[in-house]
């Protein structure tokens, strides 16, 4: 969707350790609702004495009254929103007109954000570079990059900044009030009084620099964090496609430009333009402030008013308003070219197409809501019209990433697109599209299907995510940015009820919408994209040409300035930052571990069963884990595919359409996933599992178990044509997104060179999996694959090798367990299979996956110690320290990569990684030099540095967990709450001496078992310069 076009301040960091799953690979159902509103709080307050989940408290009281003035803000509107059990307060600053939206909810994960409407009129990436620069130091905090420094002085559960097509926002969330106030001070000063230093502009934006800083004769090159970030972003074809879709669909105003920056345009930006843009757009009258949670709002209001807003005059902000896109009288077609993806489909199939239709003004919230539902009905799952007409004939690799309803701009859009198809089929798509629209208008919609979609939406309203405040912010930002009614937009149940009433009143309601928005809509764009073998070459030439022009235009004085600036920047990057100016938490702020409800384990019909009573808001969560370690290696290799198709083929009783409808009308879906767990006690063995997860409203729990039972016992894989289609879509989907998560793939691949278990993991979910699947499908017919998959299902689905976890409310729990027992009655018992495999360590090696992209993702991994080893918490602290104090300054700031870091996993593998990195050899050398750096910094390892690194670890350890997932670490890894608390306090007690001792123990010598990996362009000098043998995989 167009909404994916957001540029972030910080590169994605690898997921939390224990819960880290394998790289996410598939997007089977395109669902616009997935990102929508997930979460409310329990209806019933927990009984006295019962443990409360820290981020869910109850009770409600009205804190502010309409018409009253609080700290310079007039309270204009107060509404209670029952769907999410929150009270919404809309305030306006009397002096500047700044809107302040406060959502009072008994949730301790508090959120604060400042949003600006930023409308660029070129593609220099102005708002994006400004977003980076604002967080590079301000009047009160004149510290180099306080944003990154604060990452380690806080226990934020989220901290970032992002640039959308027409807005820039600065959000953070935290459960700690001291932290909340600290970050608020940093963020407000950053946006209203940033230093916007010229040297920071050179570092974050773009600069000309001598490739050898001290040699005026060396060649000049272009550098810059955003410059590289955007080169990396557009190395993913789906990003190029999405960006072009937006620019061509809404070409008339700001959306015709690339807000993140086109790498070839970025070097046109001047520092003066940037300062001027800040002055104009970062005015309080053009700002919106969002505040969510349970902390005292009066303190926030007072601070915002006294320290910032009351020093400004009100200005008219209409300059940043965005007009609606004038409607076209004729449809348009646009063709673009893309990079040839050497990991993607065959050359002649690497094309994409999308048909996009402009829908309504997004501030018409009921209309937009209904069009969103209509889009789901048209696209999602095997009962939808477009799935039947575009996907089932199987001439493509399935829906592309742009597919769905998009409500991120002033005008909303419906997009349906296909990936991996032949150019010859472009015309066919257009014809099929028109025919589908006509047919749907003629025949109407099946009520059961529409109802199943509405049920799924209602269920998603009840499902609680731990980051609800952030989800609300992100879902409201675009609408708010256009002065839409964000408060009414939260009344989802009311919108559903209105839609239901409309559907009852008028049988042709949706058909009439189809008529208006689909059949009679001339604002229609058909965007097609084909690979061009010269794409990369053309880009390089254009880049070289631009560089040449820049250089030719330089006079002697300017060349000298470039030379001097290079030296100045290097000096400032290497200077010791004065971080004492920044606030920091203290140990007493973070002493207490989070408290979670108790987990109990019992054995029911010999099945180990974990039960957790937790306020779930009338939902019961079920996880069944089948041990599959006993499968043959060949069978294991097919388990990811098995997981992807097993719930999509129907059962003996219901065909796949009926079954899908049933599942969607009773549950949130039944999902299957391969699970890989190393022994965290000794790292000598590992287990493979297949996990089934689902959840349903308590009233639907009997149906939920019945549907699971039906699927496990009577799955059906006989429809060869359908299976063939699902396999082909699966292969297309696993090849998408490698460049955007390249660091995860690189780490997976470097770990694969360390242990045989990690190697298997990479074969099952890393880059190697793509190749394996392609080859496998070439060598085996669909009928053969079908037989193999059936055999897997028969072997795996039994209660002998199963464990389960049920999370439900205290009152419903006995009933849930009753239904679970009858479910177990129906499952067959089989022989117990072997429960774990021995783990082997491998000889050191290096691997380079050649990718046709202009940036690298580098990783190095070595075997250290697993989670329960005494040294593990110390190494984890060290990983944070090395990331913040060494890798970010060197690999990001000095060498221009967008991200870099180090981590240790529960399986004991310690990894280094870089993200969107212009270098590879230099970065790997930096990884290797960690010990030398640590030695050089030895005397600087003080209490504060150590404590900051511990806070970094705490951010992961204490991050909030959704009620449905409480106990998952125990379920998957057998880490009990007691073990967790012990680990946490052990981590907090790590001393400088212990740190020094692990440095010597694990970093002094090159480790016995390590691997290095690069994902990136070919590099002939690799072996010569690294003096190592590399296995090249092209
Ligand atoms: Zn960025």
UniProtKB/TrEMBL annotation:
InterPro entries: Metalloenz_LuxS/M16, Peptidase_M16_C, Peptidase_M16C_assoc, PreP_C. Its main location: mitochondrion. Keywords: Hydrolase, Metal-binding, Metalloprotease, Mitochondrion, Protease, Transit peptide, Zinc. The keyword Zinc applies. GO terms for cellular component: mitochondrial matrix. Signal peptide: none annotated. PANTHER family: PRESEQUENCE PROTEASE, PRESEQUENCE PROTEASE, MITOCHONDRIAL. Belongs to the peptidase M16 family. PreP subfamily. This is Presequence protease, mitochondrial. It comes from Drosophila lebanonensis (Fruit fly). The lineage of its organism: Eukaryota, Metazoa, Ecdysozoa, Arthropoda, Hexapoda.
């Amino acid at each position: 969707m167009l909404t994916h076009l957001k540029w972030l301040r910080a590169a994605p960091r690898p997921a939390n350790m224990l819960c880290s799953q394998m790289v996410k690979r598939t997007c089977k159902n395109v669902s616009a609702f997935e990102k929508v509103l997930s979460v409310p709080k329990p209806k019933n307050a927990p009984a006295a004495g019962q443990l409360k989940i820290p981020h869910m408290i109850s009770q409600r009281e009205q804190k502010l009254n309409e018409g009253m003035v609080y700290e310079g803000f007039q309270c204009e509107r107060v509404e209670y929103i029952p769907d999410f059990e929150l009270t919404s307060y809309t305030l306006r600053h009397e002096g500047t007109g700044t809107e302040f939206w406060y959502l009072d909810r008994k949730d301790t994960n508090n959120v604060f954000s400042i949003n600006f409407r930023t409308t660029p009129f070129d593609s220099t990436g102005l708002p994006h570079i400004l977003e980076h620069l604002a967080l590079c130091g301000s009047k009160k905090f004149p510290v180099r990059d306080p944003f990154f420094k604060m990452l380690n002085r806080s226990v934020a559960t989220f901290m970032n900044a992002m640039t959308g097509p027409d807005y820039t926002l600065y959000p953070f969330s935290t459960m700690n009030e001291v932290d909340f106030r600290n970050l608020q001070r940093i963020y407000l000063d950053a946006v209203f009084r940033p230093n916007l230093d010229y040297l920071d502009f050179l570092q974050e934006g773009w600069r000309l620099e001598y490739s050898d800083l001290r040699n005026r004769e060396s060649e000049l090159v272009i550098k810059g964090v955003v410059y590289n970030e955007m080169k990396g972003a557009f190395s993913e074809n789906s990003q190029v496609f999405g960006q072009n879709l937006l620019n061509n669909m809404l070409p008339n105003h700001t959306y015709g430009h690339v807000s993140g920056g086109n790498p070839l345009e970025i070097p046109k930006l001047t520092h003066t333009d940037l300062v001027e843009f800040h002055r104009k757009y970062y005015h309080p009258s053009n700002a919106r402030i969002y505040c969510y949670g349970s902390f005292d709002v009066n303190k926030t209001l007072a601070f915002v008013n006294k320290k910032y807003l009351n020093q400004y005059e009100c200005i008219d902000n209409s300059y940043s308003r965005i007009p609606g896109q004038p409607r076209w009288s004729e449809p348009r077609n646009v063709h673009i070219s893309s990079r040839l993806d050497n990991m993607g489909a065959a050359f002649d199939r690497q094309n994409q197409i999308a048909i996009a239709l402009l829908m309504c003004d997004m501030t018409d919230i009921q209309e937009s809501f209904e069009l969103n539902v209509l889009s789901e009905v048209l696209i999602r799952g095997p009962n939808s019209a477009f799935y039947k007409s575009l996907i089932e004939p199987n001439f493509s690799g399935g829906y592309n990433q742009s597919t769905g309803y998009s409500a991120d701009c002033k005008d909303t859009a419906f997009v349906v697109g296909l990936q991996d198809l032949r150019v010859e089929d472009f015309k066919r798509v257009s014809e099929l599209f028109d025919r589908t629209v006509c047919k749907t208008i003629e025949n109407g919609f099946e009520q059961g299907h529409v109802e199943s979609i509405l049920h799924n939406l209602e269920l998603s309203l009840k499902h609680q995510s731990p980051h609800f405040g952030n989800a609300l912010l992100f879902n409201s930002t675009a609408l708010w940015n256009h002065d839409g009614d964000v408060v009414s937009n939260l009344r989802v149940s009311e919108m559903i009820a209105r839609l239901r009433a409309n559907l009852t009143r008028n049988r042709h309601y949706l058909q009439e919408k189809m008529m208006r928005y689909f059949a009679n809509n001339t604002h229609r764009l058909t965007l097609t994209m084909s690979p061009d073998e010269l794409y990369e070459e053309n880009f390089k030439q254009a880049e070289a040409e631009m560089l040449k022009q820049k250089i030719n235009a330089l006079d002697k004085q300017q060349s000298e300035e470039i030379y001097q600036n290079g030296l100045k920047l290097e000096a400032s990057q290497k200077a010791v930052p004065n971080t004492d100016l920044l606030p920091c938490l203290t140990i007493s702020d973070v002493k207490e571990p989070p408290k979670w409800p108790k987990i109990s384990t019992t054995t029911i019909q010999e099945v180990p069963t974990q039960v957790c009573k937790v306020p779930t808001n009338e939902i019961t969560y079920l996880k069944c884990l089948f041990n599959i370690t006993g499968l043959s290696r060949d069978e294991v290799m097919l388990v990811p595919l098995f997981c992807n198709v097993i719930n999509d083929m129907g059962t003996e009783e219901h065909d796949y359409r009926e079954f899908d409808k049933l599942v969607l009308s009773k549950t949130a879906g039944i999902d299957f996933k391969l699970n890989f767990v190393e022994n965290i006690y000794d790292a000598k063995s590992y287990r493979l599992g297949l996990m089934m997860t689902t959840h349903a409203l308590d009233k639907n729990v009997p149906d939920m178990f019945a549907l699971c039972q039906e699927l496990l016992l009577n799955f059906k894989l006989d429809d060869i044509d359908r299976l063939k289609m699902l396999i082909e879509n699966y292969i297309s989907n696993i090849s998408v997104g490698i460049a955007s998560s390249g660091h995860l793939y690189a780490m997976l691949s470097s770990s694969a060179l360390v242990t045989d278990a990690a190697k298997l993991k990479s074969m099952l979910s890393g880059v190697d999996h793509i190749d394996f699947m392609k080859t496998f499908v070439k060598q085996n017919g669909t009928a053969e694959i079908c037989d193999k998959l059936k055999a897997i299902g028969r072997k795996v689905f039994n209660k002998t090798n199963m464990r389960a976890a049920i999370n439900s409310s205290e009152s419903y729990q006995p009933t849930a367990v009753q239904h679970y027992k009858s479910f177990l009655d129906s499952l067959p018992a089989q022989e117990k299979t072997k429960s774990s495999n021995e783990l082997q360590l491998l000889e050191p090696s290096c691997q380079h996956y050649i990718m046709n992209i202009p940036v690298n993702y580098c990783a190095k991994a070595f075997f250290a110690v697993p989670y329960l080893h005494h040294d593990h918490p110390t190494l984890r602290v060290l990983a944070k320290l090395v990331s913040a104090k060494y890798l970010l300054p060197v690999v990001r700031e000095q060498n221009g990569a967008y991200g870099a870091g180090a981590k240790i996993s529960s399986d004991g593998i310690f990894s280094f990684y870089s993200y969107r990195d212009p270098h590879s050899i230099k970065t790997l050398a930096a990884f290797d030099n960690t010990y030398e750096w640590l030695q050089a910094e030895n005397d600087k390892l003080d209490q504060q540095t150590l404590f900051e690194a511990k806070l970094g670890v705490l951010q992961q350890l204490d991050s909030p967990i959704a009620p449905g997932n409480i106990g998952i670490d125990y379920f998957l890894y057998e880490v009990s709450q007691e073990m967790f608390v012990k680990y946490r306090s052990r981590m907090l007690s790590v001393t400088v001496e212990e740190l020094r001792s692990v440095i010597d123990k694990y970093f002094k010598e090159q480790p016995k078992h390590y691997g290095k990996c690069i994902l990136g362009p070919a590099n002939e000098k690799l072996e010569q310069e690294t003096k190592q043998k590399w296995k090249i995989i092209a």
